[in-house]
Amino acid sequence: MLPPSSSPAIRPTTLVEEPFRGTEVTHATLTPAGALLRLATYSTALLIPEGAIPKHQRHSVALSIVRDDKHHVPVPTGPRSTYLSPVVFCGPVDTKVNKPIVMQLPHCAENLSDWAFSLYSAPDNVTPWCKVVTIGEETLNTPALVQIDKRYAYVLTEAFGKYVLVGESATDIQERVACKKLRLFICGPSTVPEFSDVSLRVYIVEDNPGAEERCRHCEQEIGGVLLGRSTVLHFADVGQAGLNIDLQCVGGWRAKSSSERQTIPFSHVWNSACTALHCSFTLCRTEHDKCDFKIVVQASQDVPQGLDERLTAIGVPATLSISSFVPMAKDGRHCQHSSSSFETMTICSVGSGDHNTNLLATDRFRLSKDVKRKLCRCLDPPTQKRNDWRMLAAHLNVDRYLTYFATRPSPTDQILDLWECRNRDLNALQQLIEICRTMERPDAVAILEQIQPAAPWV
């Protein structure tokens, strides 16, 4: 063991740089004080709690979005399974922690109760994927737990590696129809030659934060740019109902082929495995003296009659239009999702709006080591009124994992680690105070209120 005055060497991030070169990545130095890594564009985060590694150790760790198609080895799932999150890597894979880490993954699932969710993992790009857990089938020996909220999944695990969330229609009670959200992007040249044809590409991607950047990345390799983005498209697991894409041109342009419609088979959309699915249209001029034009793209799914009323949004087409070949400005709205607004797998609870811009963008923890220690002393001991860590878990909608929390040295500590990652709103600390007040725990309220409002997270 190194003496306290020594400066320990940082262990290199082996198995990170080479296999995942070219991916979106962030690095941090992990110390016994923990670390919080964030990829804001992709609304992805990794929380490594305080005390996860021994004293006087320092590790270099990384969090990465794996967006290159060559890394997307198909997950060995059934024919009706579909990717719901980006592929995310945290490493090095040989990093050892003595407390679970918490990973935030965005997902595009709609109506959570219609889904059966599974988490898959692989340590690298050579080892085959394996299923870690299916939600609802957890045991005490399950190597990871997954909390599904309305827009995000939170993974608790002690293993670093590559992760992805997949899903299929639930069949536990009755046959259900799972629905995922997609978005279309139209791409093409930034300038249009006067006499040559123009090739446009329409990408169909999961409506997760970072979808825009994913398309930009694909277009950079061929010299194209993003020209427009569609409204949300709800795509359902309804058999062979494919995706129809219609393109209309006015103002001196027309589609070169005889048909302005392309149909993408259902299996190509549902089983795209995070690849950059797209179709192409070639346009030619009909009048060279016209400078004003408009291109309208509409996407829709052939929906069988008799679907549940909850899925009426499936029949609503997604549309986009452009009136110039000008690159689309970058838009950061898609990383402004509020994680405090959640619909869980066990208790449906909707808080503030889905698009809350008052998010805490920092790599600092909200609760200091001293505050967490005091809260654990308060809430870990069981009480006759059950207004202890068990009631805190219920108020935070994570009480389906009570058995797991009970096996931890400090249940409150683990619950607060999950809270730290799930709740990044500026008012989340005040909400936690109100929860403790509702629990009739003035001692916990007093501890939290001691945090100075001007600097509530140290």
UniProtKB/TrEMBL annotation:
Residues 24-160 form the ZU5 domain. Residues 388-452 form the Death domain. Keywords: Membrane, Transmembrane, Transmembrane helix. It is found in: Membrane. GO terms for biological process: motor neuron axon guidance. It holds the Pfam family ZU5. Its main location: membrane. GO terms for molecular function: netrin receptor activity. It is a single-pass membrane protein. SUPFAM superfamilies: DEATH domain. GO terms for cellular component: membrane. The keyword Membrane applies. PROSITE patterns: DEATH_DOMAIN, ZU5. Belongs to the unc-5 family. This is Netrin receptor UNC5. It comes from Anopheles melas. The lineage of its organism: Eukaryota, Metazoa, Ecdysozoa, Arthropoda, Hexapoda.
